[in-house]
Design a protein that fits this description.
Order of helices and strands: EHEHHHEEHEEHEHEHEHHEHEEHEE
Distance between the termini: 56 Å
Largest sheet: 5 strands, antiparallel
Strand content: 5-15%
Radius of gyration: 23 Å
Strand order of the largest sheet: 5-6-4-3-8
Helix content: 25-40%
Shape: globular
Number of helices: 12
Structural class: alpha+beta
Oligomer: single chain
């Protein structure tokens, strides 16, 4: 629709693509589209049959109508111009935010996919925030004090979405809100990252994208270090723990784990969280956002994963899927 946008996944060979139209276009919340490539190798009718297993026979016609309205909006002659304007506003926000003391803004690596780089969505502005507090706490403060809503608050990052409806006033309000210090000291959290060994090294471009805050691609104002006052020992952020590398649990490697279906239908019980370590989970537990499961039905519960999900909850993340919201007890498969 405009220069600077990534190439569509279908044009890169994807067979099926789900597009969250409520985030990228003007469709209502929960509205999305499923695109099927003309070269999709699946037999004709397989996708509709699969949808019938999970889709209601009485869909919301409000959502369907909003999808049609969004398609027509993008088919309008002015859509290309409006998309380019939204990209320009997002870039303006990146530049202005990066000039604020202590604010680090994600700077996409150059080159693009054709040049060995990574294509990113220019309508998303990502800010690293762990120097000030958790992204969950900062998101709540932005909403309460300024009416600024972040699309995706995470432990260490905030992602702001720009669209055809974004105005210059929205950018000004975001920058003004980011420039104001919090009314109270936000608690800083040290949460270890959970990483699984990769079967092969990540490409350099992906290593750059996942680099730590002290390195690119998160850029801060050049004079931040010189202008910022020295923090006392009590104010200093806790040192970030080393990433926790999780080997494949033995119960999975040697076949003692269960499939999600087997675990779902198996007898289960609630036990103390400490006793649950080493047992097979009977529930799907994740923090939202981002909604990636930490415990999966049939998967062994590890002490590292339990520490991780508890730390996320303490930092303000919503934990979903657990029988006990306090995480004092976990639901496991009866042995």
């Amino acid at each position: 629709m405009a220069p600077g946008l990534p190439r569509p996944a279908l044009s890169r060979g994807a067979d099926l693509v789900i597009q969250s139209s409520h985030k990228t276009l003007g469709a209502m919340t929960q509205a999305a589209m499923l695109h099927i490539s003309a070269d999709c190798p699946l037999p004709h009718g397989v996708v509709p049959q699969a949808l019938e297993l999970v889709q209601s026979s009485s869909p919301s016609y409000l959502l369907l109508a909003s999808l049609d309205a969004a398609r027509w909006q993008y088919a309008d002659a002015d859509a290309r111009r409006d998309t380019a304007a939204a990209i320009a506003l997002a870039q303006q926000a990146r530049c202005r935010l990066s000039q604020l003391p202590g604010v680090r803004v994600f700077a996409p690596p150059g080159g693009g996919a054709a040049g060995g780089g990574v294509e990113t969505d220019p309508l998303r502005v990502v800010v690293r925030c762990d120097d000030a507090g958790s992204g969950f706490d900062i998101d709540e403060a932005l909403i309460e004090r300024h009416g600024v809503y972040c699309e995706l608050p995470e432990l260490r990052h905030l992602t702001f979405a720009f669209s055809l409806g974004t105005t210059q006033g929205d950018v000004d309000l975001l920058v003004e809100a980011a420039a104001q210090p919090p009314r109270h000291t936000l608690q800083r959290h040290a949460v270890p990252l959970l990483l699984h060994p990769s079967p092969k090294p990540l490409p350099k471009a992906l290593r750059d994208v996942t680099a730590d805050a002290d390195a690119a691609p998160f850029a801060a104002a050049a004079d931040d270090a010189a202008s910022a006052p020295a923090a006392s020992a009590s104010e200093a952020a806790p040192a970030a723990p080393a990433p926790v590398w999780l080997p494949l649990p033995a119960a999975v490697a040697d076949g003692r784990g269960l499939t999600p279906r087997e675990a779902f239908f198996a007898p289960s019980e609630l036990v103390d969280a400490r006793e649950a370590v080493g047992r097979l989970s009977a529930e799907l537990v994740c923090s939202y956002p981002p909604g990636i499961p930490v415990f999966f039905p049939g998967e062994p519960i590890t002490a590292e994963a339990l520490q991780h999900i508890r730390a996320l909850r303490a930092a303000g993340a919503d934990v979903c899927g657990c029988s006990d919201a306090s995480l004092a007890r976990l639901c496991v498969v009866v042995e």
